[in-house]
Amino acid sequence: MASPSSVTSAVSVRRRAVPVPRAESRFDRRLGKILVHATEVFYEKGYEGASMRDLARSSGMSLSGLYYYFESKEKLLYLIQKHTFSTIVERLRERLDEVSPPEERIRVFILNHVQYFLANRKAMKVLSHEAEVLNNGFGSEIAAIKREYYRICVALLDDFKRAKRLQFSSRMAVLSLFGMMNWIYTWYNPRVDADAKELSRGMGDIFLRGISGGAQRHTSQSTKLQRKSVSN
User: Fold this and answer.
1) pLDDT tens, 84-131?
2) Closest among 133, 108, 117 to 201, alpha carbons compared
């Protein structure tokens, strides 16, 4: 009979064991290719303008073959959005695990976002333009992933505020940051604009100076008003 210590040791080993990655199946590979082609079609024609026949033709499949994988184009859009947002969040968490200073964590957030957007500009256009299309369970699931991403960013801003002893609206700051990052695809030109790292560094400078300077001005004005009310 095994001793308690040997059982504990075995459990510890099992917990530390690295899980073996699941081999990608032929179905998974085919699915990935279909999503790439679907992104192209939605990018060119828009969600409303694209038909299942267009999607089948682009992916080199028969219409019945496409229906084998997906029952509707809504399911395709859902999977594109789920893959995109899940990938961004997973990569962000991995990167944040390696960084501690609050300011650097915000810069990591910006870099992660900008790098993915520039590498997947067509998908980003589709997601930006078709954000309200999904309904029922599809829409709810994507909205939950988006809320998680938003909450991560709010937490980073709250940590930064505490570290710098600043006062500003985290909600307004986060939504302003997303506004700055999410429309890159409308103006970015790789021939004249910097790469993702340099671009994210510049955006980080603008954003962090803005919230820091604005918070300091707000604090200064509040102090002046307090002094004036005391003197009166």
Assistant:
1) 999 999 999 999 999 999 999 999 999 999 999 999 888 888 887 887
2) 108
Do the Cβ atoms of 39 and 80 come closer than 8 Å?
Answer: yes
pTM of the model: 0.77
Q: What is the pLDDT of residues 184-214, one digit of tens each?
A: 888 999 999 999 999 999 999 999 999 998 5
Residue 20 and residue 42: Cα distance in Å, rounded? 35
How many residues are listed for the chain in this entry? Answer: 232
Owner of token pair 């991403």? 149
CA-based nearest residue to 157, from 212, 196, 203, 98: 212
Tell me the C-alpha to C-alpha distance, in Å, between residue 188 and each of 10, 90, 107, 196, 206.
54, 25, 20, 10, 17
Residue 122 and residue 43 in contact, taking contact as beta carbons nearer than 8 Å: yes
Give residue for tokens 């029952």: 71
Dihedral class, residue 193 (left if φ above 0, else alpha if ψ from -120 to 50, else beta): beta
The closest alpha carbon to 85, from 38, 136, 143, 41, belongs to: 143
- What backbone torsions phi and psi does residue 214 show, to the nearest 5 degrees? -65, -40
pLDDT band at 215 (very low <50, low <70, confident <90, very high): low
Distance, in Å, from the CA atom of 183 to the CA atom of 197, rounded to the nearest integer, reads: 17
**Pair 201, 114: CB distance under 8 Å:** no
Q: 76 and 70 in contact (C-beta within 8 Å)?
A: yes
